[in-house]
Amino acid sequence: MNNLESYILNGRRVWRGHLNKINGHSLTAPASFVIRPLGHKDAAAMGELSADIYRHLNRGEECFIHHHDQSYYNRITDNQNIVYIGVFRGDQLIAMSNLTLCRTRQEFATEIPASPIDFFKRRNNAFIAALGADCVRPQYRGNELNAIMISCRIQMAKDMGCTDAAAIIDRRNHWNMPPYFSNNFNMFASGIDPSDGGAISLLHHDLFDNQPPKTPHSGISIPYQRFDIIDRLLAKGFIGKSYNRDNASITFIPSANYSRETGRFNIFPTPLKQMRGINRV
User: Which alpha helices (H) appear in the chain, and where do they start and end?
Assistant: First the structure.
């Protein structure tokens, strides 16, 4: 991943990195970018970026991102529980994303619908950062900016005392799966987004445990679009751990880390030997 410099400016954490390509072409000299929190003064740029992203979506991808205008971003930046960050090349906003702070089950259910796990049973002090709104201008894709923004938001969530990070991804949006898996998110469930009826995958990253349990290196590889098989694996307690770009597949391993009955996590993963006979799922 792009090497970032992180520092505090006027009481806010900001990051600096370098672009390696524009419009799919490698740069002879890297161009720098800055990532910083967004506010009222950025609302016009946020609206313009949203329109540009929406304009370049292919047919059927409309649910991957919601199209909002400047007035929406003027309102949303007043909400202290929602923090947007933006990637700037010079004065141009080229990417943005957000995190929403969830202190209660109700707040979490609004941001991450259909979760079979009650994360607030896991620990009494649960404080969850829900990540979303990931978008990058088409000409700047290929620079791992989504993965970088996820990493930055994880750092922000830790700075704010969050215990967990969570996210949802439209199950057809396989382009946004690798950035989350590369930032140590687990796919632990699937569901339906009540806002648009779309099939979604639910992802989780433990921020509280700096040394999560070791997991097997091998697993079972399933094409991302085989929702039927993936749903059965998730129901049996398997979790998605990585994404293979070469064949568009997700690697699943058995795990006792996610208990649907109690919402609590055990320490050790289920032995990989329990994968025998998995072709019968």
Answer: 43-55, 70-76, 105-111, 119-122, 145-159, 177-181, 227-235
